[in-house]
């Protein structure tokens, strides 16, 4: 099952429009290319709707948000909703400031994502809860399950809560992914890249739950494979091998 | 012949002002440093003309264009034309949106590049043709030759069309480069970096054709060398070795 | 002594708010994570003061300055001064243009950094001197000592002048660090990353001089260790091993 989702991405190479934070643009583009998708990144309000209409999926990530970008996200998101392509929304740091929190609401009032993806603190914030995620992430799978159910219900979307275990809720079904590696938490942008890969998977045919689970599983296994390479000695040497592993077959 | 161009870059270390897209800034800066040039990247309209006047070359790349950046490119481009330093213009994604297409015309009406560099679809768009470049790049060298001749004539510049074979047209002479490796297409920003290296080569003494050809050849051979390293297993591990290879001598 | 500073960073994982240039954001974030700190990067004037108030330190780096960012730096800097967290100011390219030079003065009139960090040319410019730093950096340690003393006195801060030897002045004490490796000058953003690590060290307990010296020493030794790895063949392969080395213990 999982093989077919990733293979479909590689065959179709869906073009994914990213409006994402400036810290992770390069890593995201290289990671998505390795995974099998095709990245395009455009922010200007004059062209974002046109770029979205050329694309097969849209990723919205608020990590380095500013006013022009909020406008661009709403324009692109509306265009994506109109033409019926999937949107993944990543509310990076939503609980950190009033500005980010409000921007999430402004975007979610006008745009309907296919999947909202974040860590427990970010998703909890979207449903009015306050979860402490600094330091050791103490949110267990049981809490994550409640959170994704509530997010999915409130926003009428799919939801994916990343963590030691990833917990998803698509069409009312809750599921857990247990692949992954601690080195993912020691590099910047690993969660942001996952959002990009999820968008690419959602852009090909198949059941949404199958596509999300296959992507989470492939992503975590790629990290495990990379971390196990004998010449990986830390986060710096992990990154290039993780990108390589994303490009490999699931059977590897 | 080729040796001397690259050696001149390494000796003179030309300072190249980049107004480029935010996806590739880091990779471009590291690649140009390895090649032998010295990167500076400034976007503020208040200072771009001053930065250009300190520089020996100017790269304009529209990959993540916005209005302030169009203004900055025109200010910097006019300053470069005034002091007579080379400009490379890279119309990334020009056919994708009306906004990009119009921005190219706005820039090219006020700025005269030394070389316009792009893939077949981008260059064809600048001369009013429509070439499909999604999927397998089916544009052969014969088509590319026609395209670079027409771009060079219309804009009174040099032109370089990248692809499986790179085809250039400088001062009416058409030439082909056949070095390169498919991994270049699996990483983000390889074409953008080439634009930066071409600017650096054009900034040192020598015939423009010789400098462009030497740079295309060195770039492609660096990719071949990097791809042939036994510890390169995919696009992730290719990147650091490609940067290393750019720093090596041409004889290597 | 040095061990304890780095260990304190790793235990406390201080959250460092970066307003920095777009060339180095990804590398800085990965380098700081490896060192033991926790990066956050936000630029919007609507939220920078809030982000600073959540943080344990603030880095201001003007490498790709624009007007909105100057405003953001002043807002964040004032917030940092109010709550008493350390600020490192990195006047990248200050002598290059009138705009940058003026922006430094606008920021330094409203914000009091804990440490101003730059190369000899940048620091000299802040005290009205003109030092040529293009090409071989001929500034000796004696000149650097005079420069850091004058910067520290004029702006009532600590000062760190990077170069073949790094020279610091904290609370009137001048000190020299001699660790380091020439490959640091062949990659982009090495100085920018050092500013981030200094901010993280200043955010934990200890004497400022001890913390700055320990960080300079650890940084330079990490570069030496990375450069000495047998599979490092140039700047490209140096980068991942340098990030790994930042994550290692000082005894290594």
Beta-strand residue percentage of chain A: 15-25%
What's the rounded overall pLDDT mean of chain A? 94
Shape of chain A: globular
CATH class of chain A: Alpha Beta
Number of helices of chain A: 10
Biggest interface, and residues per chain?
Answer: A-B, 31 and 30 residues
String of helices and strands of chain A = HEHEHEHEHEHHEEEHHH
**What is the correct CATH architecture of chain A?**
3-Layer(aba) Sandwich
Largest sheet of chain A: 8 strands, mixed
Terminal residue distance of chain A: 15 Å
**Oligomerization state:** homotrimer
* Total separate domains of chain A: 1
SSE-based structural type of chain A: alpha/beta
**Share of helix of chain A, binned:** 40-55%
CATH topology of chain A: UDP-N-acetylmuramoyl-L-alanine:D-glutamate ligase
Write down the Rg of chain A: 17 Å
What are the segments of chain A in which pLDDT stays under 50 over at least 5 consecutive residues? Answer: 134-138
Largest beta sheet: strand ordering of chain A: 2-1-3-4-5-6-7-8
Supply the CATH superfamily name of chain A. Ribokinase
**How many strands of chain A?**
8
How are the elements arranged and paired?
The structure is a homotrimer of 252-residue chains.
Chain A: H1 2-12, E1 15-19, H2 25-35, E2 38-41, H3 48-54, E3 57-61, H4 67-83, E4 87-90, H5 98-110, E5 115-119, H6 120-126, H7 141-155, E6 158-162, E7 166-170, E8 173-177, H8 190-202, H9 208-227, H10 235-247
């Amino acid at each position: 099952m999982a093989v077919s989702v990733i293979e479909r991405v590689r065959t179709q190479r869906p073009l994914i429009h990213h409006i994402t934070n400036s810290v992770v643009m390069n890593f995201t583009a290289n990671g998505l290319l390795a995974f099998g998708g095709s990245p395009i990144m455009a922010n200007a309000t004059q062209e974002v709707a046109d770029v979205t209409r050329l694309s097969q999926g849209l990723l919205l990530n608020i990590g380095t948000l500013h006013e022009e970008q909020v406008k661009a996200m709403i324009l692109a998101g509306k265009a994506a909703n109109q033409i019926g392509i999937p949107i993944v929304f990543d509310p990076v740091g939503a609980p950190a400031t009033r500005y980010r929190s409000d921007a999430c609401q402004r975007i979610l009032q006008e745009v309907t994502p296919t999947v909202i993806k974040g860590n427990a603190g970010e998703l909890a914030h979207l449903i009015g809860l306050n979860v402490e995620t600094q330091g050791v992430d103490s949110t267990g799978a049981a809490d994550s399950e409640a959170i994704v159910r509530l997010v999915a219900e409130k926003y009428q979307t799919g939801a994916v809560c990343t963590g030691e275990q990833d917990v998803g809720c698509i069409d009312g079904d809750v599921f857990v992914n247990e692949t992954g590696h601690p080195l993912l938490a020691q590099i910047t942008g690993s969660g942001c890249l996952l959002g990009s890969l999820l968008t690419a998977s959602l852009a090909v045919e198949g059941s949404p739950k199958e596509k999300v689970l296959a992507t989470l599983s492939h992503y975590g296994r790629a990290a495990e494979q990379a971390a196990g390479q004998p010449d990986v000695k830390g986060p710096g040497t992990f990154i290039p091998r993780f990108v390589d592993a994303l490009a490999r077959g699931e059977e590897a």
